[in-house]
Amino acid sequence: MFRNREDAAQQLAHRLKHRSWRDPLVLAIPRGGVVLGAVLARELDADLDVIIARKLRAPGQPELAIGAICENGEAFLNENVKDDIDGMQDYLAEEYREQLAEIARRKELFRAVRPQAPVKGRSLIVTDDGIATGATMLAALQVLEAKAPHEIVVAVPVAAFDRLAEIRRWSTQVICLHAAARFRAIGQFYEDFAQIEDDEVVAILEDFAPRSKNKAATTANT
Question: Which of 43, 71, 109, 193 is deepest in the core (most CB within 10 A)?
Answer without folding.
Answer: 71
